Amino acid sequence: MAPSSTSSEGASDEWLPPSRRPELADVVPVTQDDGPHPVVAIAYRDEFREVMDYFRALYFAGERSVRALHLTAEVIDLNPGNYTVWHFRRLVLEALDADLREEMDFVDRIAECNPKNYQIWHHKRWLAEKLGPDIANKEHEFTRKILSMDAKNYHAWSHRQWVLQALGGWETELQYCNQLLEEDVFNNSAWNQRYLVITSSPLLGGLAAMRDSEVDYTVGAILANPQNESPWRYLKGLYKGENNLLMADERISDVCLKVLKHDSTCVFALSLLLDLLQIGLQPSDELKGTIEAIKNSDPEADEAVDADLATAICSILQRCDPLRINYWSWYRTTISSQT
Amino acid sequence: MDSPSQPSPPPPAAAAEGGPAADGQAAELPRLTVTQVEQMKVEAKVGEIYRVLFGNAPNANSLMLELWREQHVEYLTRGLKHLGPSFHVLDANRPWLCYWIIHALALLDEIPDDVEDDIVDFLSRCQDKDGGYGGGPGQLPHLATTYAAVNTLVTIGSERALSSVNRDNLYKFMLRMKDTSGAFRMHDGGEIDVRASYTAISVASLVNILDGELAKGVGNYITRCQTYEGGIAGEPYAEAHGGYTFCGLATMILLNEVDKLDLASLIGWVAFRQGVECGFQGRTNKLVDGCYSFWQGAALALTQKLMTVVDEQLKSSYSSKRPPGDDACGTSSSTEAAYYAKFGFDFIEKSNQIGPLFHNIALQQYILLCAQVLDGGLRDKPGKNRDHYHSCYCLSGLSVSQYSAMVDSDACPLPQHVLGPYSNLLEPIHPLYNVVLDKYHTAYEFFSS
Ligand SMILES: [Zn+2]
């Protein structure tokens, strides 16, 4: 029979120190070997110290037993960042052939209180790998729950991506991205997830098949919030490694020009235009006119004639994005070195 | 020597108005999103601080811009000796606590010599008999705590400290942590990510045990973690992130495979992470945080020495449709340890080919005004508590920004590069390992003989 992986039975009972538990009577606790002059010494509470002393005894003895399993749960409860305990717990679970679904419930309860802990998520991945595709949907539900509390939790996103790639569950993922972006279009993690779905979902045909509709979607998001950096980066990402296609898609320079009509100093629009020119875009008359007008509208602008359109955009950016003046000054030097 | 462009700090109003969330665009929206609301709160707090500064008489400015050395030293030194019960959550990170505190004190040039031997003794108790260091005595060896322990020992720098590292076993431990993909896992059965690869390669390079066997496959793994945004993620397909971007970039330099990354897009992504608050955010559309002063600031500082590679990449990318990262093949075929040993050393000897790519003065402004805590220690942002981690990385970032305008890594910055009184100047670091530079040189000599 597989043992239960929960900690001591009757959790509602008053906590009993390990030294007074009959099932641990034969264990000789091992104190921490901090030496005669410890540094970064933590003033442990008695409860913490005692549980750790008993844990050390079983860990050093390599005892893979039910009572060891219970004790690891207690240590994890006190300090879920203790990777040694998690590692030992996995050895015990394997030795006891424990019910891993129950273990998943255990770790989920801990994760809900400590959602930003490396060990917990690693343990979940270890379990999910063993449980296989059947667990995929449950895992997606769980990360969805964690992401509903913090939509940018890095660990939760990594886990979700791993489950998708290893165990599946792609069916509703694009819809989930849509939903998150509807809630908060500035959520860059959701944009990043969208990129994974578009490029890797076995159900959608990959980036080449999705690019066209994605450009439309992204352009819409940019026009709704031109100051939102995420869709600008995503738009460029849709043409990663495909400079010729990027140049050929008129929607890209169009959206830049549209945005600049309302906000002539939009850094993201100017920056993307600059990138387009750098990879060889032949500027339309409209583009030339727009940049010329922006340049002339600034009374501070120096009289000097810029060598080319890209340099002119750099000059504008140097003025309207003073925080990045060093970056734009450098960018400017890369233009002259190309011609 | 001074570098070409030296900007003045951005106008003080920058943080108080404008910004992605606070302008007219937002007002037209039906509602503000969570990201916008959180951003506005931080901008308001930071703006208030800056308004006080710039509303003051000119001589008050330099007072406010002072680095509160004594208070920081007191806070840090206290932590080295005693930590309260709430620190039990860091019980598996005690070498990290040593590193955060000792490195911060070294930056302030204030390492107390009476505890050096105690630290060496304590870390020896964390060293596993089969190699590597755990989070405390008797704990499983872990690559991140190994990095923290070795960096601490290098920062102490005594013969006793440096010779306490069992390099033969350390090498075997690292080989055991290598996955079939080439990437490293943190500990036996532990997670694989860019942090694990960085901590492994950084330590191996520092103590001169890096060879082709350890290096194999790491560069390909990290290349796969560069995202469409330009930054590097913790794992392939995850979101570009400042911490992993530093770790990935530094690793690639130490492996001499940095040409496999798309450097121009990496630089562009990091440069855009500095925001109206003057500090760096860790990811696109996330909040400013003092610790990214180092992770993002140092990543950009590293690229100041990579301009030859960047220029090569730009040339080839403009003439072909493939990004530079894709066609770079690992030409580094040598597997000799001596071959790898010198990359960290040669790198720091190289001059900065350009000035800083971020706003080095603005970054100092954020650290000094928004990250310092009056009672000592530094923090993420106004409203947050201080901690040792943020104290370490805010000060590391401060050092990076003070020295970033110089052509040579160890040259003394000019007064105009140091915001506030010149006594704010910290010790320079080796940015690939984040240890104080002269301590690095001592260790380099020790481990290469
Ligand atoms: Zn932080």
Short description:
Helix content of chain A is 65%, strand content 0%. Chain A has 17 helices and no strands.
The CA-CA distance between the termini of chain B, in Å, is 33 Å
Largest interface summary: A-B, 84 and 97 residues
Count of individual helical segments of chain B: 22
Biggest β-sheet strands, sense, barrel of chain A: none
CATH topology of the largest domain in chain B: Glycosyltransferase
Strand order of the largest sheet of chain B: 1-2
Rg on CA atoms of chain A, Å:
29 Å
Overall description:
Chain A: It catalyses: geranylgeranyl diphosphate + L-cysteinyl-[protein] = S-geranylgeranyl-L-cysteinyl-[protein] + diphosphate; L-cysteinyl-[protein] + (2E,6E)-farnesyl diphosphate = S-(2E,6E)-farnesyl-L-cysteinyl-[protein] + diphosphate. The complex is a heterodimer of chains A (339) and B (449). In chain A, 65% of the residues lie in helices and 0% in strands. Residues 1-10 of chain A have low confidence and may be disordered. By secondary structure, chain A is an all-alpha fold. Chain A contains 17 helices and no strands. Chain B has two domains: 13-62, no CATH class; 90-361 and 430-448, Glycosyltransferase (Alpha/alpha barrel). In chain B, helix 6 packs parallel to helix 21, helix 11 crosses helix 14 (242-254) and helix 20 packs antiparallel against helix 21. In chain B, 60% of the residues are buried. Classes of the chains: A mainly alpha (339), B mainly alpha (449). At the A-B interface, helix 1, helix 3, helix 5, helix 7 and helix 9 of A face helix 3, helix 5, helix 6, helix 7 and helix 15 of B. Zinc ion binds next to loops of chain B. Residues 289, 291, 380, 390 of chain B line the site of zinc ion.
